[in-house]
Automatic annotation (TrEMBL):
Organism, as annotated: Gimibacter soli
Family listed: Belongs to the UPF0260 family.
Family matches, as InterPro entries: Puta_zinc/iron-chelating_dom, UCP006173
Protein name, as recorded: UPF0260 protein PH603_00605
Residue runs in coiled coils: none
Source taxon at top rank: Bacteria
Lineage: Bacteria, Pseudomonadati, Pseudomonadota, Alphaproteobacteria, Kordiimonadales
């Protein structure tokens, strides 16, 4: 049986925790919250640290040093991140659901997220050139 079936999120090792990330880059897209409804809207505007070709953070280990408001997911705070994409392994497991068929831990292939069309690679815009984020609201991250 796979470790994500056997252990609660809080019991995962750091390596197991990190391996849950499918590398989609969706969490690195800017989101806008509707002030009236609280609804979260995804944009195709990516953090400046995101490599738009690979959908991976350019400075992952030290990302907080470069982007002070970068969100670091942990087993302790994952429950408060309902804004994470519906395909996010952390969110899925926190909700008692299983990983999608295309997840690298399921397929054994680190490129399966890209092959399934589930990454922001080639679809996102760098925040430094995006202009008004409201002009970049998209529905595809879900």
């Amino acid at each position: 049986m796979a470790f994500w079936h056997d252990k609660p999120l809080a019991a995962l090792s750091q390596a197991e925790w990190e391996s849950l990330c499918d590398g989609c880059g969706k969490c690195c897209l800017h989101k806008l919250e509707d002030e009236d409804t609280g609804e979260i809207h995804y944009t195709d505007v990516a953090c400046r640290m995101l490599d738009l070709t690979t959908a991976r953070c350019k400075r992952y280990p030290e990302r907080k040093r470069y982007v002070a408001n970068c969100t670091v997911l942990t087993a302790k705070n994952i429950e408060s991140f309902a804004w994470m994409p519906s395909t996010c392994a952390y969110r899925l497991l926190a909700e008692g659901k299983d990983l999608p068929d295309w997840h690298p831990l399921v397929t054994g292939d680190p490129a399966s997220t890209l092959a399934a069309g589930q990454t922001v690679a080639g679809r996102a815009v760098d925040e430094r050139v995006a202009g008004d984020f409201e002009d970049h609201i998209v529905s595809w991250p879900e």
